[in-house]
Amino acid sequence: YGLTPMFAGQLQRLRQLCGDLVALRKGDQNAQWLRIERQKLQMAGEKNAGEQAARFIKMVNDKEAEAIALSSGPTPEKIKRLRETYFADIDAFAASGEMEGMLPK
């Protein structure tokens, strides 16, 4: 192309600089994406906690829950039946791994 050695050197430094800037921008975009995903998980956890509280209040006033609680049998079995009846979706959500990092340690 008939480039002078000085111009060729400057062009090479410009390419390196542009490559570094692209890498920095990509890092910024990845960091923002992670922040957004964390916010989504936090919001899902808050929504889930609210739904769980509402379900618990409903369960307290529920005749089926009362029947399970007053039934004969060991307490662990009653707890298991209550959990299966009212919290199966919560257990499935916990087993899915989506709650990872949402609960305090």
Walk me through what this model shows:
This protein has 105 residues and is mostly helical. The chain has helices spanning 5-60, 63-70, 75-86, 88-95. The chain contains four helices and no strands. The protein is rod-shaped, with a radius of gyration of 28 Å. It starts with a helix and ends in a 10-residue tail after the last helix. The mean pLDDT is 82.
Rg from C-alpha positions? 28 Å
Number of strands: 0
What value does the average pLDDT take? 82
Poorly predicted ranges: none
Question: What is the string of SSEs from the N terminus onward?
Answer: HHHH
* Global shape: rod-shaped
Judged by helices, strands and strand pairing, the structural class is: mainly alpha
C-alpha termini separation: 63 Å
Strand content: under 5%
For the sheet with most strands, the description reads:
none
- The level of helicity is over 70%
Q: Please report the number of helical segments.
A: 4
